[in-house]
Amino acid sequence: MTRIICSAPGKVILFGEHAVVYGHPALATVTDQRTYVQVDSGAQRNTVNGHRMHDHHHRYLMTAVERCWMGGPVDIQTDGGVPSASGTGSSAALTVAAVSALAAHEGIYDYATIAQRSFFVERSAQGGGSPTDTSVSTAGGAIAIAGHGETLGLGPKLWSPTFHEPDQEDLRWNVERVSIAPMTVVIGNSGVRGRTSEEVAKVARAMQRNAMVRDTLQQLGDISRDAVPYLRSGDLVEVGHLMDQAHRALHTIGVNHPAVQGLVDAVRDLPGTFGAKMTGAGGGGSILCLTEQPERAMNAIREAGGIPFAVEVGGQGARLEDPELTVVEGSHAPKLR
Ligand code: PMV
Fold first, then answer.
1. Nearest in space to 23 (alpha carbons), one of 202, 165, 213, 217
2. Of 13, 5, 21, which is closest to residue 88 (Cα–Cα)?
3. Cβ of residue 200 lying under 6 Å from some atom of ligand 1
4. Closest Cα partner for 284 from 185, 187, 186, 196?
5. pLDDT tens for residues 188-208?
């Protein structure tokens, strides 16, 4: 038996959600929430946290094992530090940590390979979606990404994830490194579950009917570009302004939700708030608030009916952990053994 433990972080989309689907840039960064995956080779059968691996309950892990693993049965233990269904990248963190651990068993620890395999696994398991989450969770720090193979020129190139759809031209994205100053942001989960595929389809329909939606997507991409120097220098006032602008633009393209707007309204005019926007696909999901008074913003989100958490962004991406590690994450009991 060989034991390998890897971990990978959650993410937030700072700017450019939806615009990225049409080749405009998006910026994403990692949070300090991490999911840990331990893979023991030489097991009797494939198990996850002591249960037989099941395609319904363990969709991402099963896809990872089926598509990225040539060895025998594996015993997998997970400790998910990234809250699920909140637009903060829990499935990507799980996928990247699992793919990293499986690759490390083969002696591979190359980020471009891990990013490509993780994207392949996530997209195969969920159908649709861009490599934003899996790439940033692998790379750490912050990234710029654009679809349609567009080159951005916002930072050093990292990799170009691709996906082959039968009877279609291969899909291709470009991912670049963007350096950002360390920041604390407050995330507020509305508790309303948005469906990424539905919101993406809604924008596609609106785009065909309405030139203003096309212009607004272009504007969202421009905001991503404009934000890069301010993120780099840590100019929170300017980043906050751009967040407010991006939120209005996302509202214009029809992906805002009353519960999400309620959270934005609750934090927007608080002392210490630089800016606030929805993050991710919308139709529910979470907001992102840039503030120098995180406690105040968290209380306001709670009072408005949301679930708040403060995260540090821009930290480490996927990493190999010491196999002797015992994980005790926040309220999580140590589940890895
Ligand atoms: O809701 P999330 O965090 O999965 O973000 C979706 C971002 C979109 O741009 C709307 C879709 C995509 O795949 O890029």
1. 217
2. 13
3. yes
4. 196
5. 999 999 888 899 899 999 999
